[in-house]
Amino acid sequence: MRKGLLLGIVLILLLSLSMGTIYGASDSPTLILDGQVLQTPEPPVIRSGRTLLPAKVLFESMGGTVSWDAQLRKTTIALDDTTVELFIDSTTAYVNGEEKQLDVPATIISRRTYVPVNFVATQLGCEVLWNATDRTVTVNSPKEPVQVTDISVQQAGDTLRVQLSADSAIEGYRSVAYELPDRVVIDIKHAKLNFEDTDAAGSLGISNSVFSDVRYSQFDTDTVRAVIDLAVKQAPHVSLSQDKMSVYVDFTVDENSGDSSDDDNSDNDDGDNTSGEVLPDNGDGVINNPQLADLDLPQLDWRMQGQLIVIDPGHGGTDSGSLGYQNGSVILQEKTINLKVATRLNELLQMAGATTHMTRTDDSSVALYDRPEIANQLSAALFVSCHNNSNESATPHGTEVHYSNKESEADYNFRSQTVATFVMDELEKSMGLQRRGAKLSPSYAVIRCSNMPAIIIEGAFLSNPSDLQYMLTDQYVEDYALGAARGIIKALNASVN
Q: Rounded CA gap, 482 and 493, in Å?
């Protein structure tokens, strides 16, 4: 009897293991390379939220080489002029000799070397996309570099535009303003300079009331650089055209001054890319605004004033968000307090010299994935989503800020984590609530799907009676918005200093 029972248990365990293996395989992501499903001898696996797959299968399929050093337990992956070295069970990798840190290390499964696909493919210049709905990892091989074929200057009304044009969609760019001397640098990634009758470097020889010249060069093998030598301290608003084939660098000028570029063309307006308001300054780039001193609100450095900040009041319309109850009745909807805070935050940032845009300005519905897409389409530099928290228990209380580290943040002058930390520090001071910290939260859609650095602020808990009473006051709106504004401005100013 006992022997038969033991045999039965063993059979059940074997069946369970078999079923687990089947289910594990069926749960594995599907790998798509350049539009075609790529079959692998062993299925991809997910560890710590990252997809790993056999190195040889993917990278040799796109023409790369994969080699293995048994003594060093190192796999080397090379494609074109990029080499990636990974060590088994180590979170340190090397890309063309430069040290990089991994979220998850390479590992060995079933005697095959598995590597984190997003890290390696991105370093090799590939595009990597993840679809959580159908669990697919899409990898697109590196494209040929775009050809930057023209740099021109036009003026339309009070907007003076430097336009960098390419023969195909621009994959990415980075803009930075510098002092001593004052200048704006625009780098177009994965690009080649391809002007007719020109060397690898030159200048337009155009001057006006805003800048004294525009210089250009093939900065390195993969980057075209334009340098705008400024005559005044003004950071432009930089954006992509709707077809992504041009970078617009927009300055504001006094349309009554009579100043214009030597290459005027007021008919060109391919995108909804407006420049931020430039307030009077004292000659050194510092805006004269006595209201800031009264609020103890820092002035935004002139080099960051052209960087667009998108402010997202969470929820809205048919989506109320969390609800605050008192005696069984709803006394506050999250969407309402979010909009009040975001509206005041928008006012404060503009007062400090920032260029801003709100995803909604009234009680309207904005789809979840439309929110980061708005910021992406506007070529924003920072995305800030204003929320408030809730829990099934009435006990949790306090303030927290969420962020996500993304590869795309390398194109910007600061990181999400930096902004989140500054904002958390200032909210703790202004609101006086429990500090719940700046938290890494890559699963949140609005900060995961935005190209630029992004944070979500959770001001307080509607489910906590004490927090809720505070949230019903005008003081809460002011403390939340002012703390967030101080943190944002300090983070951006630190990035240029």
A: 16
Distances (CA, A) of 463 to 392, 398, 430, 469, 474: 7, 11, 21, 10, 19
pTM higher than the cut 0.70 = no
* Both tokens assigned to 362: 């009234």
Q: Taking the CB of residue 271, how many other CB atoms lie within 10 A of it?
A: 16
CATH number of 146-252: 2.60.40.3500
Specify the 3-state DSSP secondary structure of 227. strand
Q: How far, in Å, CA of 225 to CA of 215, rounded? A: 8
Q: Which of 19-23, 205-209, 292-296, 456-460 has the highest mean pLDDT?
A: 456-460
- Report d(CA 226, CA 208) in Å as an integer: 17
Please give the structure tokens belonging to residue 201.
Answer: 């470097």
Determine which helix (DSSP H) or strand (DSSP E) holds 482, and give its type and residue range: helix 474-496
Same fold, 25-140 and 146-252: no
CATH no., domain 25-140 = 3.30.457.10
Domain at 290-496, CATH class: alpha beta
The three-point CA angle 369-375-376 to 5° equals 85
Q: Rounded distance, CA 222 to CA 153, Å?
A: 24
CA distance 175 to 170: 14
Where in the chain are the domains? 25-140, 146-252, 290-496
* Joined tokens for residue 398: 């306090």
Tokens (6 digits) for 254: 């006094």
Measured between alpha carbons, how far is residue 79 from residues 57, 96, 142 in Å?
14, 11, 9
Q: Do 124 and 168 touch, CB atoms closer than 8 A?
A: no
Q: What is the pLDDT of residues 9-59, one digit of tens each?
A: 444 444 333 333 333 344 678 888 888 888 877 788 888 778 888 888 888
**C-beta of residue 342 within 8 angstroms of C-beta of residue 334:** no
Write the Ramachandran bin of 144: left for phi over 0, alpha for psi from -120 to 50, otherwise beta: beta
* Three-state secondary-structure class, residue 9: helix
Closest to 370 (Cα-Cα) out of 361, 360, 362, 381: 360
Tell me the C-alpha distance between 320 and 248, whole Å.
Answer: 38
